[in-house]
Amino acid sequence: MKQTVNVLVPVGQLGGGVRAEEVANGIAWGSHAIAVDAGSTDSGAAYLAMGVSKNSREAVKRDLLILMEAQARARIPLTIGSCGQAGGDAGVNWTRDIVVELAGELKLHPRIALLYSEQDKRVLKEKNAHGKIQALTPTNPMTDALIDSCDHIVAVMGAEPFMAALDAGADIVLGGRTTDTAVIAALPLMRGSGAGATWHAAKVAECGALCTTDPARGSGVLLRIGEDSFVVEPLSTGIRCDTYSVSAHMLYENSNPFRLIEPGGILDVTAARYHQLNERSVRVVGSQWETRPYTIKLEGAAGGPFQTIMLIGIQDPKVLANLDLFHDRMLAALHGRVSRSIGEGVDYDISLRLYGWNAVSGLPVPPDAVPPREVGVLFVATAATQEMATRIAKTCNPYFFHFPLEAGTELPSYGFPFSPAEIERGRVYEFKLNHVVAVNDPLELVRIEWVDKA
User: How far apart, in whole angstroms, are the C-alpha atoms of residue 10 and residue 221?
Assistant: First the structure.
């Protein structure tokens, strides 16, 4: 590895807790760029539909303060992808405002590029009419109605928009929705590093110190990417990478541990080999890149019905010994009560989630499972309006005081941690799109704007 492009990845997600001493290490060790992801779909559709960030403004500003000071001192670019969690235009603007505010406080004047990837519905309808949009399994084919049902739609950018901004002289690039890897891969690809090595390195480093043996004790890593290999090293001197921790990250959020689909190609690590370079670093060779027709994933989200919830604690031993039966009988009784009290024809749903039993997986519990000491029942009423969801919860509330497992037996007592018991949770948000769109140019669906003087 005679010549490498070195990328400092300070943390897995902006706002997650950048460590100043680690960033200083990365700069001292020869970083050519700082790259960090700022969001994903991990936390659900609400952030795209609402245009808000999961992370607090204070947490993001704190991390940006460290990164912008380092960027200015080292005179290397800072690239950020999926700004504001979901990468919509509102998220890019929210992050832009924090960066501009910090630049004023720090008396810095960076050239800032803004990459917007939120989509015009008319453009997507035209693309679909020409057969350019395909559904991913198990999604239904794209229709105009499906497009119109979304509150916001973003295209998941690859590395090329970041490369274009860097080539035009950007000091800081704030990107809309981006693949986790693309924001890291941009500068190495631009400077001639091998595509296989670059995309694999970016995949390994996308979550910062998660590819180390002790991620709780560190936040970031440094990549050194060459023509046909790369080296990954923790930014914290107190932790290490080994061949297991590095190779295992191909399993993270990926259905195939050997192949990773990106805009414009597929990373294939079938032939990759992992070598312990020294006590703290791992070198990887043999990663391959397969160029494919350029497609970009579309993500669309919208608000739906409303929910009201209640939380109930149960310690009754008879109920705990027959939780599946209790669930089924209680649910049937609640539906009957709603039908009798509110009437037929109401569009609603009730679910009971037994935390401590099977609420996380939703799968049947083995018949020989030991009864838990206690469970928490999460009651969820879903309806077209908040008022109706709350009416349903209030209607069902009395059953959770003393509902017996068997009729005619002594009544048990259950516990409510809150009064009033009904908690209006608000709207349900859902992803509507899981499609890819074919483009002739990687920048075709991206708008680049500039903040020349912060």
Answer: 6
Q: Would you state the pLDDT for residue 454? A: 52
Q: Which of 340, 335, 436 is nearest to 379 (CA)?
A: 335
> What domains sit in the chain, N to C, each tagged with a CATH number?
5-117+156-294+439-451 (no CATH), 303-431 (3.30.70)
Backbone φ and ψ of 391, nearest 5°: -60, -40
CB 302 within 8 A of CB 270: no
Please write the tens of the pLDDT for every residue from 281-300.
Answer: 999 999 999 999 999 999 99
pLDDT of residue 408: 81
pLDDT, average across residues 252-263: 92
SS3 percent helix, strand, coil of the chain, rounded to 5, is 30, 30, 40
Contact 241, 281 (CB under 8 A): yes
Q: Are 348 and 381 in contact (CB under 8 A)?
A: yes
Q: Does the model's pTM come out above 0.85?
A: yes
How many CA atoms within 13 Å lie on the side-chain side of 69? 13
- List of residues 6+ apart from 399 with CB closer than 8 A: 330, 333, 334, 337
